[in-house]
Write a structure and sequence with these properties.
- By secondary structure, this protein is of the alpha/beta class.
- The protein is 28% helix and 22% strand.
- A seven-stranded mixed beta sheet has the order 4-3-2-5-6-10-9, sandwiched between helices. A three-stranded antiparallel beta sheet has the order 1-7-8.
- The radius of gyration is 18 Å and the shape is globular.
- The mean pLDDT is 95.
Length: 278
């Protein structure tokens, strides 16, 4: 839920072309190196077994976008430290989380050691895997979801969507949150400067950060709302809902470019709720 802001190797950033594998390598290295610092900064907001969809603080406890999860097979794509999967386990789901970053999965193991789940919960299974090539048979899950995981960091999002469709059972849910596409037009800063349009909404050039040698060490990719809808339809999904959270009055914290100032006048997150067509 943030642009690259932890690695000391980053010395410059801008809108640059980048290949599919190059983007994945850069982001894997970035999250491996920043996982501990990321959790130190945002861990209190995310909790140890909370399900938070976005920096606005939308929680699955309140919105129930995944419906009844008891005894359901649920996969989290880009699980990070696994807080959402742990929440699911506490609510009776059989949860599995995958992430490309070994650093983030180490944080998931730490949370489990330090905050064991209740006696009735089946602890989630965590695996290291590329979201573009999920290590599961077809028709394995009732629900697949992602809370700001994987999708912003891959050039070939259509491959992730195809994999989500493949491992879902017919009629299964695929729900994911990403930075709202409209945010791409604005500088990613929390203050007044972040309220002025500087970039074209229709420019899909990725945002890339480089190290001193000019190598990519972080990348995010932009799709318009129509891009997302086209990709979802092409992958076999039907859109059942689009959540654009308003900024809560009681949330006075900032998270990177997310802030009360910006959040009260523009959407920061888009949550797509879909169902795999039978």
């Amino acid at each position: 839920m943030s642009e690259g802001e932890y690695s000391p190797e980053i010395i410059s950033g801008g809108y640059l072309s980048i290949g599919e594998e190059e983007s994945v390598r850069a982001n894997r290295s970035y999250w491996d190196g920043s996982a501990e610092e990321y959790l130190a900064e945002h861990g209190s907001f995310l909790g140890a077994s909370e399900f938070v969809w976005c920096p606005e603080g939308v929680r699955e406890d309140d919105v129930r976008l995944l419906g009844d999860v008891q005894r359901r097979q649920v996969l989290e794509v880009g699980c990070g430290a696994g807080q959402c999967s742990r929440w699911l386990a506490e609510h009776g789901a059989l949860a599995t989380g995958v992430d490309l970053s070994s650093g983030m999965l180490e944080q998931a193991s730490r949370l489990q050691r330090e905050n064991p789940l209740g006696p009735d919960a089946v602890p989630p299974t965590f695996l290291q895997a590329d979201a573009r090539s999920l290590p599961f048979p077809s028709d394995s899950f009732d629900i697949v979801f992602s809370s700001y995981g994987a999708l912003p960091f891959v050039k070939d999002a259509e491959t992730v969507l195809a994999e989500a469709a493949r491992v879902l059972r017919p009629g299964g849910l695929w729900v994911f949150s990403v930075t709202h596409p409209l945010r791409w037009m604005f500088p990613d800063v929390p203050g007044e400067a972040g309220l002025t349009v500087e970039y074209s909404y229709f420019d899909r050039t990725p945002y890339v950060e480089l190290d001193a040698s000019g190598q990519p060490v972080y990348a995010e990719h932009h799709r318009t709302l129509s891009d997302w809808i086209r990709l979802l339809v092409d992958a076999g999904f039907e859109l059942t809902g689009l959540t654009e959270p308003e900024w809560p009055e009681d949330n006075e914290s900032s998270w990177g470019g997310w802030s009360p100032l910006r959040g009260r006048v523009m959407p920061g997150t888009a949550i797509f709720s879909t169902r795999l067509r039978d």
